[in-house]
Here is the input.
Amino acid sequence: MNRWVQGLRELRGYPSAVGGLAIILFLVALSLYTVITIPYSEALDRWRGGDHWQMNPVNAGPVWADRLLGGNLPQTRVVESDNADVREAPFEGGKQVRIPLTFEYDNEGFPSELNLFLNQKGTQQEAFVRLTWHTPSGETIPLGGQRVSEEDRISISQNRALEGRLGMVPHVGLFAGGSDPADPRAERGDYRLTVDAMLFDPGAELEADLAVYGRVHGLAGTDYQRRNLMLALMWGTPVALAFGLLAAVGTTITTLVIAATGVWYRGWVDALIQRLTEVNMILPMLPILVMVGTLYSTSIWLMLGVVIALGIFSAGIKTYRAMLLPIREAPYIEAARAYGAGNARIILRYMIPRILPVLIPTFVTLIPTFVFLEASLAVLGLGDPELPTWGKVLNDAQEQSALYNGFYYWVVAPAVLLMLTGLGFAMFGFALDRVFNPRLRTQ
Amino acid sequence: MNSRLRDFRRLGWFTLRRVLALFVTVLIGVYLTIVIANMGGKVDELRKLQIRSTVSESVRADPSFSEMDSEKRNELIKEQVQLQIEQRNLDEPFIWRSFDYLAQAIQLDLGRAEEMHSDTGSRAVYDIIVERLPATLLLFGTANLLVFFVSVYAALYLSRRYGSRLDRAVIGLAPSSAAPAWFYGIFLILLFAFVVPVLPAGGMVAIPPPEDPWVYAGSVLEHLVLPVIAMFLSSIFISIYSWRTFFLIHSSEDYVEMARAKGLPSNLIQSRYILRPTLAPIITNFLLMLIGLWSGAIILEQVFNWPGLGTLLFQAIGHRDTPVIIGGVVIFAYLLAVTVFMLDFLYAILDPRVRIEGGEQ
Here is the structure.
């Protein structure tokens, strides 16, 4: 025990160990926080996409990146009718409602989209809605009218007729003021969208929410399905750590036990293990994983199982065998046999603990390998179909040509997290190696 | 004379046993791949379904059969399906066929692809693989040779300046190799193809390929830069680190100290006292690296859109084109076995212990 404490104390002298450990602790804390605040089922449900995200912009970058570069791009804002000064005028068999949705626009650039969400309560009847747009300079632009059912969405951005009239896409044209259509600039000030509705039921109520989608969103931005990337970045952490740790533990321990068994029993057991290791060397790991992924299922747990199964007879057996061979002949093993220790006891309690300190650095440096393996599979499109992981974010980005379209944040954020994980474990592992395997320090 | 004869006999005996062991190894490895690539026979079911749908489609589309009544037509479809299934031996149980496949694969009779074909239109697996080989060899050969020689020389240099600032800097950078090459590739593409567009983002030559051979070579070279840098970055520091450790251990041997004490020049010490005894592991490493070239790298090739073997294998898996998958694995297995055997043989000649004890340990 003393040796461990001493080793740990010594680690404090290595800045890379402290740095690596700090990164690992940060990642562990982040995963704990994520798992506690966003339960597993909720994360899966949200990542599937859909209505959760309808108030998010498409492909918006992170806010901080824009502000850091001195930009002032708009964030999404929702103007709700609950806060508006609604006027009602009843008529026979229904009522007329006027909802003014007012907001102040004080950003550079234009919104990325305009949507109006309508929700009619207390009736089955379709209502008729007419929209009018008022700019700060006093201009009034009619946006046309249409019938709406109980719950409806009017995509102002996709109003082709309006686009033709403005000569620009509506979410630009409506904000451009009188500026040159070739180089439009957003006009700042108070805008108003007036919703005039005819409800054909005296008891009906109408709610209207105007979503002015921004160009930047939150800490991590959003993807092409409006999903907040923060969810995937956060949930990717526990998934990556769990996958890396389980795969590393699974392969190292099984390999070690098998190597020790072979060394202890010698003879045909050893020979069989050696031959199996050689067979395994021929099997190409990644193509087999890809085959399993395409032919069977891409579940992350199946992949984990295959990785461990292929790792059992890995080339590491040869190294461990070389380390264990001299230990087999050590006097303390003979002593253990003399007082009647069984085979399993000698292997598990006498031989393996002896080489554990040498193995721990290897083990720590092995973790990022598997983290990256998971990401690699995801980048090939063989990521888990449900779980949000860093690799899947990268894969989505690749498929949507994020780099080509200039959505750098989409690639950079997961890549930085992957790099951080890799660096953290590698730095810590290398420092451990120097502390626990001091063959070079005497130089 | 007598002892030399005994040596030869031992060596021959050792060689025979190694060849046998390696052959069995290749046999089992290839067989496992065949079973996995066929999903334990499930791919056959898919193939039968496919035959059935294509045959019925073609019969229905053929105007000369349109007059036939439906029962007769169904009969005809059934017959043709049966014919095709028999043609491909799909009516035999998978277990037997798997051994057939194994025998063919071991004889390097790679057969014909199910779906894929080479750019020249050939369906022979051999042609398909050979077509992709130069691209992979070019990329991975350049990168790996670069990494190998740079790291060995740098390691020799650093091991003589153990503890210097440069040495510590390189050790400090070693953890950067935790990330694979494709990962650096993404960053390089981002930086040099999009932020500062100076190099192409992917592919092997410009589209359309230039006519002039010099321009063609230049274009290939241009496309080669980013993937080579990515591979170089991802493995150079860890490679230098491990070689340096290796040389340090060997340069602290007593006979090296002795040579130093004798006052021999450091170049002589390096070439005769450090490099020569460590030549065997260096050669091993070099040969294993050369075989490693063969398998390519699926993801790096995908990221850079490089038309090599990795991409081929990935496409083959996507098409469930088992002959191509198995062909790739078989060749890899043979190359690995041959290399391992050559190394064993080399060691047996170089290392007297092997001769005396007959090869065990």
In short: Residues 154 and 179 of chain B are 21 Å apart (CA to CA). The longest helix of chain B spans residues 213-250. Chain B has 15 helices and no strands.
